[in-house]
Design goal:
Layout lengths: L1 E9 L6 E9 L5 E5 L2 E11 L2 E6 L4 E9 L2 E6 L5 E12 L13 E3 L4 E6 L6 E2 L4 E7 L2 E6 L4 E6 L6 E2 L4 E6 L3
Antiparallel strand pairs: 1-2, 1-8, 2-3, 3-4, 4-5, 5-6, 6-7, 7-8, 9-16, 10-12, 10-15, 11-14, 12-13, 14-16
């Protein structure tokens, strides 16, 4: 299972709000989200690039539009005015599906769900920055960008364009920056 933890700032000036966000991706494609201790489970579907539908456990559906690239974005919820969002200290980690199991090393970028690799956007030896797109993967008839979890150097790529992968499959190994 893949988990991500971020420190997020939403808004600016007197309307600025800082929060800690922890997201854990489940095997069935849902996301368990903890925002400053408030937990919910959501299903996310990309409607088009930068536009997502969120369905929470109570059956409420929301639409969010994102513009920009990490760490700085603008987010618009339900068609309201966009607000700045800054994501800092993104820490991507691999957690096991069963206690004590290892599902990959710190440098592995893994598929969060089954899909087909549509495009490989980097090559071995490339230096990448946190948030930089690495792959386009088609899952459930939607294209998803898989991004670098941190700065580093692409040490190896384990997939090719057109290849089908299962959830948890290691796509790329990322080493430290040189």
């Amino acid at each position: 299972m893949k988990a991500e933890m971020w420190n997020v700032t939403v808004g600016s000036g007197k309307d600025e709000r800082r929060m800690s966000v922890h997201v854990e991706y489940t095997a069935d494609g849902a996301c368990c989200v903890d925002v400053d201790g408030e937990k919910t489970t959501v299903r996310v579907v990309q409607l088009e690039p930068g536009c997502y539908s969120l369905l929470d456990e109570a059956g409420r559906q929301r639409t969010v539009e994102l513009d920009g690239t990490l760490p700085e974005l603008k987010a618009s919820f339900e068609g309201r005015d966009a607000v700045p969002v800054v994501v800092k200290n993104a820490d991507v980690m691999q957690t096991s599906a069963a206690a004590g199991e290892s599902s990959g090393s710190r440098g592995d970028v893994v598929a969060s769900m089954p899909g087909k690799v549509v495009k490989v956007l980097v090559k071995e030896g490339d230096e990448v920055r946190a948030g930089q797109p690495l792959f386009l993967v088609e899952a459930m008839k939607m294209e998803n960008e898989l991004r670098a979890p941190r700065n580093g150097k692409v040490l190896s790529i384990a997939v090719r364009e057109g290849q089908t992968v299962e959830a948890g499959f290691s796509l790329l190994h990322l080493g430290g920056s040189t």
